[in-house]
Fold each of these.
Amino acid sequence: MKATFKIDFFELMFLAESVIPNQPIARSMCFDSFSDTHYHNMTDNQRVQFFNHVIRIPRFNLENEQCKHFFARFDPDNQYVVHTDFEGKKEKTEAYFYNGEYRVGKDKYISKEYIVKVSEKLRKKVV
């Protein structure tokens, strides 16, 4: 059984400081979890605040692949609604653009052949 631990948002920001790459694998996996798991548990305000905090940490380096991915996932100006049509089933999916693909996770992307339209995600006013 997988245990779940709740931590305060500000504790999460401090945790981010300790796991920014290059770190051993366990810390590296924690850093990836910000994009694939914790992103979805944050409000828009928290996402922007977390993004702004992490990218200002001196060890955050956009030459590092994990940092580039984090930047793409959290950048408020890189959020899209992707409209798809797969065998007649039409869907809208929130995604971000990374390495030439609209992604929904670090290892999950939307296949270009099913994309009908892409629009910028309307951002709520963030305070």
Note: The longest helix spans residues 25-36.
Amino acid sequence: MGCSEVLELTDTDGEVTGQYSIFAITFNDSNLDDNAPRGAVYRNSGMHQYMVQNGYWMSPGMLGSCSTALDISDVDAFCETLKTGIGAIREKRSDSA
């Protein structure tokens, strides 16, 4: 499973872009987005915060990079965390609405 497939499986409006080992995930869903441009210093509460708190360093704006030492099991674990995070944030934000 890849990041684009996670977006499809979770019916998430967004886009995965990248070149070589650098990638970015853009969410068009305001409930998931941290509402700040890439590279900005801000207090986040969306997917960026979730991924960092769950072991994946991403820059603000969901920019990341892959190491050549990674294998498919590392990608699968990242995508599973992404999928779980989308569900958790949606649930949290719908509870507070």
Note: The helical segments are 3-9, 47-53, 72-95.
Amino acid sequence: MTQEEKQLLLKELCVRLPYGVRISLTETERDASASEFSYRDGRFLTGILYAVYPQENRVIIDELSEPIAQYNVRCGGFDIDECNVRPYLRLMSSMTDKEREEWADLFNLELDKLNEIDDEDKAEELAPYYFGKSHQVSIDWLNAHHFDYRCLIPKGLALEAPEGMYKAE
């Protein structure tokens, strides 16, 4: 993984932290005796992202699919340089019609507020605020629904979430 890819992945993991994103991780090829946890020898584990430490290139994964062998715990810290850490995300093309309408409504709400302003000069002055706020709300919505709007799946930095992994709330 290049440094740029690592930074993109860490940034992505940080913004998705509040939304319970599921993670897949596999140990990359290295000396197994150097492993802090010696877990599952090259096979994969899944769990929910619990914490991200960008300065240390580490993540904490909770609710692991199997306990970490020697400690018998379901939570552990993993170095992204030593483990292949990838979030499960949904393709944008998997958005349902209902989700598409909901997402579009986020923009319309802000535009309607802007159109209510009578004074044209005031409207121009406030436009960047409303569009900026609308954009932030939209990105939050995409994160909460686990969509891959940064195209991490084709880059190999994320996995396509199986259908039904993230139940509609």
Note: Helices lie at 3-16, 97-115, 120-144, 152-155.
